[in-house]
């Protein structure tokens, strides 16, 4: 091979290597540009909430649901146990018709507790076929459904206790029977507002979070 051929061959190899290096650099720069653009889009403040704000919102969410759940469990267990006892349903001084209404109250408490749990944890925000990316209108409708569910849970979880506080206003009623305490005492007047407050506060926290 003569010197001219060798020189031409070396020049050719340099050109090929330079082209490959240039292409590699361009491709690398392109990937870096795509990564930077994607990162700025995905993690910009306008697209995702701050992590601290997200955690705080999560705590508020759970607090409201926990309060509603505690109230529901009291309705399901504590209230029926208190009435299904010697002071109420097994009280020999009570007439059969009075025990009938006591049984009605026990059943109502259980139903209210179940309904409160249902509306507290109901996935009412889910909509049929919202699409891969929910539109603003779909998000608004989902939020309103969730708010309605929590308002319903708050009402169901508090109405039993509110009715109990109003019961003392009827003629010849008392919070206790003479054999179990002073008939002028009204111990329910201390407990019932607290239980009702659990449901109302829990529902308020959830609707406030949703805006």
Outline the structure in words:
This protein is mainly alpha-helical and 211 residues long. The protein is 73% helix and 0% strand. The chain contains 5 helices and no strands. Helix 2 runs antiparallel to helix 3 and helix 4 packs antiparallel against helix 5. About 11% of the residues have low confidence.
Brief write-up:
The chain is mainly α. It has helices spanning 3-42, 51-83, 96-121, 136-167, 188-210.
Q: What are the salient characteristics of this protein?
A:
single chain, 211 residues, mainly alpha, 5 helices, 73% helix, 0% strand, elongated
From the spread of the alpha carbons, the general shape counts as elongated
Structural class: mainly alpha
* Contiguous helical run count: 5
- How much strand? under 5%
Spans of at least 5 consecutive residues with low confidence: 19-24, 33-49
Helix/strand layout:
Layout: H1 3-42, H2 51-83, H3 96-121, H4 136-167, H5 188-210
Helix pairs in contact: 2-3, 2-4, 2-5, 3-4, 4-5
């Amino acid at each position: 091979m003569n010197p001219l051929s060798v020189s031409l061959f070396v020049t050719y190899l340099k050109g090929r290597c330079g082209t490959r290096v240039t292409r590699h650099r361009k491709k690398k720069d392109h990937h870096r540009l795509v990564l930077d653009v994607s990162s700025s889009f995905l993690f910009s403040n306008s697209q995702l909430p701050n992590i601290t704000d997200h955690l705080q919102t999560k705590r508020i969410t759970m607090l409201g649901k926990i309060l509603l759940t505690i109230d529901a469990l009291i309705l399901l267990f504590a209230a029926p146990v208190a009435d299904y006892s010697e002071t109420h349903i097994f009280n020999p001084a009570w007439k059969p018709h009075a025990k009938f209404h006591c049984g009605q109250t026990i059943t109502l408490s259980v139903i209210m507790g179940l309904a409160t749990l249902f509306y507290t944890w109901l996935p009412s925000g889910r909509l049929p076929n919202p699409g891969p990316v929910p539109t603003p209108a779909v998000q608004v409708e989902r939020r309103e459904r969730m708010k309605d569910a929590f308002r319903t849970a708050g009402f169901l979880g508090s109405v039993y206790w509110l009715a109990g506080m109003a019961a003392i206003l009827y003629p010849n009623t008392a919070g206790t029977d003479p054999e179990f305490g002073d008939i002028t005492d009204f111990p329910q007047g201390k407990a019932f507002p607290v239980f009702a407050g659990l449901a109302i506060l829990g529902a308020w926290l959830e609707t406030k979070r949703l805006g």
